[in-house]
Every structure is written in C-alpha cells, then in structure tokens.
Amino acid sequence: MGQALDVHRLQFAFTITFHYIFPQLTMGLALLLVYLKTKALRAGDEHYNRAARFWARIFGINFALGVVTEFQWNFSLVRTGRRFSKAAGGVIGQTLAMEGVFSFFLESELPGLVPVW
Fold first, then answer.
1. In whole angstroms, what is the distance from residue 94 CA to residue 70 CA?
2. Predicted TM-score (pTM) of this structure
3. What is the chain's percent helix, strand, coil content, to nearest 5?
C-alpha cells in the first residue's frame, strides 16, 4: 500500500509541475492574440492576421492540455490529499479558487472576444 501511494504522489507531483506551465502560457497567448488581431484590424495587414491564426492554434492546443492536466491533478488531490486539504485548506483553497477564476474564465472568454478563425 505504501509503495502504491508513493507512486501516486510522484505522479501527482509530475502532473502539477507540468500543469503549472499551461495557465500562464495560455493567458499570455490570449493577450498576444488580442494584440495581433487589433493590429490586423487597424492596419489592415494580412501578416498580423496570419500570425493571429497561427498563435490561435497554439493557444487551442495549450488550452486543451491545460484542461486535461487540471482535471487530473484535481482528482489526484481529492484522492490522496485529505489530510493535506484539512491542514492547509484555508490557505490553498483561496489559491485554487483564484486559479480557477483567472485561468479558466479568462482563458475561455478572451478567444470569444477575438474571433481569429
């Protein structure tokens, strides 16, 4: 039992480390898309429009991978982190809520504001 729990915790550590990249990158890419699409519309330059389409594809892939790793580490935390959540829930709860608001809502709304397809 102890060895299986250690392997599971190692997988959780890998997943949370891997996931940490995606929300920041996606929010940065969303701002880049806003900038590129604004430049394309104001200047009428097709170069900015092509760049926006290219980065929108990267954004979509990054968003999908971020969502998948988000669900996986949340379920892992629920399965193995009961004592951790009880001890640190007051501190980590606010951080998880902020991550949910910023990464999930902001990442979901910005592509709707900037139609790049």
1. 16
2. 0.67
3. 90, 0, 10
In angstroms, the CA 64 to CA 107 distance is 11
In contact, 23 and 100? CB cutoff 8 Å: no
Question: How many Å from the N-terminal Cα to the C-terminal Cα in the chain?
Answer: 50
Q: What does the pLDDT look like over 46-95, one tens digit per residue? A: 999 999 999 989 988 888 888 788 777 777 777 766 777 777 777 777 77
Distance CA 22, CA 58 (A): 11
**At a CB cut-off of 8 Å and minimum separation 6, what does 23 contact?**
66, 99, 102, 103, 107
Instruction: Residue 66: name the closest of 103, 101, 102 by CA.
Output: 103
- Taking each helix axis as running N to C, give the angle between helix 46-80 and helix 2-19, from 0 to 180 degrees, rounded to the nearest 10: 160
- Tell me the DSSP string of 37-83: HHHHHHH--HHHHHHHHHHHHHHHHHHHHHHHHHHHHHHHHHHH-HH
Q: How many CA atoms lie within 13 A of 91 on its CB side?
A: 3
